[in-house]
């Protein structure tokens, strides 16, 4: 029994037990840990040694700039420290997806699409607005000053209302309009109040789908150049956060959660040939500004900190579809990094994880991953997703097969909820292959 327990602990802590996966087995963790005394005890009891802990911007600075909720800061610091002192590895989520109400009133905070609509999902402009970026930078510096960041495994950064990279998605204007591009505020269009280091649009006033601009014909090349500016703006925003953390004294890894598979090369060709009028948009990735083929190399070449891509589609609905094909297309293969951008490769049938993992490998970036969580939780799962129990069962094989450095199970509270039907032992059994 002692030998079995030692093996389980080694697997979950990401050490190298004598198994077939000894050279590359991921570390196994959980998302959104409370790091309470009971959480720590429960995780240690089964050998879970890696946790993600979320900070909340709106709880840290709830009323105004510079006025901290000292009770919240002290509590968060104590919980993170308790996890670390107990021997757990910790990745911190900055929680910039939870902006205080006063931030929403800053100049340029409201995202605006090409129709003049704003996002109805709570997303704010952390990409182009200088005022929002300044407030965000102040918050990030406070995190570095108040928390034991030198002991962390990583800090997560993002731009979206989900804490991932990306602009709002399809129909997030709430008007029924399915393809918004969120770069039509005065900052991005005119340079008024534009965040430092951010280039303004290469075609001020041009609306995607429009055939002319300033009296000249818009070519597919010009439309492509506009889209590259749009999607790279997200990377410059991520770089800004990483630079702020580094300047404040944090020298560790920056984790960048990346949803879906993003725009495929063939999609972008079809889309820009149609001048971004909506053609070629499989899943809303164009409006979200997700083009990992280009973005991951941009991150690798421009961010001074160590970048770890967090692939949030482990066993998502696309995995369910891809593994039903003949042959199955859900599992990462050794040559994916080189074949994924070849025109003859049917990457549209690959799972999100497989394609996005290939782009991280192409860029030379380490990758971790997480499952979407319960289908009804609105955290990435859909009616076509596996159940949470099935995600727990299948995710370890996907994480191993895609050579992920770590896997975070979504979520810790699912394992604490008797009604979920899954607990920590089920997770351990899935990892060790005893389920």
From TrEMBL:
- Point out the signal peptide segment: 1-22
Q: Which UniProt keywords apply?
A: Signal
Residue ranges of the region described as Disordered:
367-393
| Record flagged with keyword Phosphoprotein | no
Q: Does the keyword Signal apply?
A: yes
InterPro entries named in the record: GH
Superkingdom of origin: Bacteria
Q: What protein name is recorded for this chain? A: Glycoside hydrolase family 42 N-terminal domain-containing protein
**Which organism was this protein described from?**
Actinomycetospora termitidis
